[in-house]
Amino acid sequence: MDTSETLRTVPTDLFLGGEWVAAENNATFPVHDPATGEILTEVADASPADAARALDAAVAAGAEWAATAPRERGEVLRAAFEALTARADDFALLMTLEMGKALPESRAEVRYGAEFFRWFSEEAVRIAGRYTHSPAGSGRIVVTKQPVGPCLAITPWNFPLAMGTRKIGPALAAGCTMLVKPASATPLTMLLLARVLEDAGLPKGVLSVLPTSRAGAVTGPLLDDPRLRKLTFTGSTSVGRALAEKAGRAMLRTSMELGGNAPFLVFDDADLDAAVDGALAAKLRNGGEACTAANRFHVANSVREEFVAKLTEKMAAYRLGPGTDPATTLGPLIDAGQKDTVTTLVGDAVANGAQLRLGGKAPDGPGWFYPATVLDDVPSSARILTEEVFGPVAAVAGFDTEDEAIAAANATEYGLAAYMYTRSLDRALRVSEAIESGMVGVNRGVISDVAAPFGGIKASGIGREGGSEGIEEYFETKYIAFE
Ligand SMILES: NC(=O)c1ccc[n+]([C@@H]2O[C@H](COP(=O)([O-])OP(=O)(O)OC[C@H]3O[C@@H](n4cnc5c(N)ncnc54)[C@H](O)[C@@H]3O)[C@@H](O)[C@H]2O)c1
Ligand SMILES: O=CCCC(=O)O
Question: Is the ipTM of this complex over 0.95?
C-alpha cells in the first residue's frame, strides 16, 4: 500500500459504540508528519458529549460482553491478531507516517503489538478462581474473578499500536468494555485497529476510540462518572500523577505505566562487544523514544574508553532520515517540542562539562530530526542523568565499584527498566535484587516480552501489563462465603 492509498483508506471518524461517526459539530484536528512538519490528514475531534455517548454504549454492552463465553471473547482477539498480522505493512506504514520512526521499527511494533492479542486470546480461557475451607472449619471460601467493568484507556504516541493492544487485549479477554483515547499525535493507528476489531466480530459498544485535541476536557468528565470503573494510562509521569489523583478521588481501579530513566550498567567483567550491541538496542530501539530506553550508561572506568569508542563507531553508522525511506535507520522525533527537549538536555550536559563524542546538533531544514549522539564523562550535575531524554542520545558516566554503580542506578525517582552487562552470575543476581526497578535486563538490551509482566515502581507507575499478570488488572476479586 502506498502512502496516499494508506491515508485514503484509514478511518478518520470516531469509532463510537461500534459506529463510525463524525465528532460533535463535525470538529476535526490535524495529524502531522514528523518528517516534514506538514499536515497528513484531519481526524474527528471528540467532544465531552461524544465521550459520554461512548460510555453509554460501553455500559449498555457491558453485561452481555462479560457473559460472553471466554472462548468466544478469545476468538475475537485471535481473529484480530490474524488480521493485524495480515495487514502488517499497512499498519507499519501508517505508524511511520504519523509517528516518524523508521519502517523496520514500525514493523517490529506491529509484530509486538499483535502478539498481545494472541497472548490474551489464550489467557481468556484460563481465568482461575479458588475453592477452599476456612481454617476454623466454619465454612467454605469461594473466590472468583469478575470483569472490572467499563474502562478508560489513555495511550501515548511512541508505540501507537502496542500500547493500545497491551490494554485492549486483556480488557476484552477479561470481559470488560473499553473507551480508548489515543495520543493526539498518533490517532490513525488506533482507528485502523478499531476497524480490525470490528471486522474480527467485536460486538457493538464493547470498544470506542475517541481521538481528541482536548484530552483533559474529554476524559475529565469520564473519570467523574460513577459508571466508569477503571483508568489505565500510559504516558508521562506528570500527566499520570494528575490523572491518578483524579482517579483516586473517584476510587477507580488504576494502572499507570509512566516514564523511565533506565540505567545501563557495564561492569569490568562484561563481554564488551555484547554490551555495545545491547546498548544500541536499549538506546536506539524506537529511535530512543521508548520508556524502557537506556537513558544513561554507567560504565566501569577501566573499560569505559573502549566501550565509548565502540558505541560511538556503531551509533555513527545510523542513518537519519524520513522513516519511509528504506535507507533510514533513525527517523525524526515526534514533534518540535521533543526536539527542543533533546537539544536542551544535550546542551546542558555539555555546559556542565560532558564531552561530546558524536552528533549533538540537529540538522537544518524541515522535520523534527536529531542525530545519534554520544556524550562521555557526563557529570552528576547534568540534567540528562535524571530526566528522560526520549531521543537518540547516549550519556555515559564512569564508576569504580559495584556499590557506586548500584547507587548511581538508583539515584532517580523512576524505577521502570534497568540493564546490566556482566559475566558473573553472582553479581547479576546481587545487582538485580539491589536495583530499584520493575524490570531488569541481564546481558540483554531489549526486555519487552508479551509473556512477561511489564511495569515499574516509584514514579514509573503502578500495575503490570502483559504476562499472566496483565489480565489481573481487569478483574475484581469476589469472595463468596458458603456454609
Ligand atoms: N511505562 C510505560 O509502559 C510507558 C510506555 C510508553 C510511554 N511511556 C511514557 O510516556 C511518555 C511519552 O508519551 P506522551 O508524550 O504521549 O505522554 P503524555 O503524558 O504527554 O501523554 C500520554 C497520553 O495522555 C494524554 N493526556 C495528556 N494530558 C492529559 C490530561 N490532562 N488528561 C487526560 N489525558 C491527557 C495524551 O493526549 C496522551 O494520550 C514518556 O514519559 C514515556 O516514558 C511509558
Ligand atoms: O515505551 C515504552 C513501552 C516499550 C515496550 O513495551 O517495550
Answer: yes
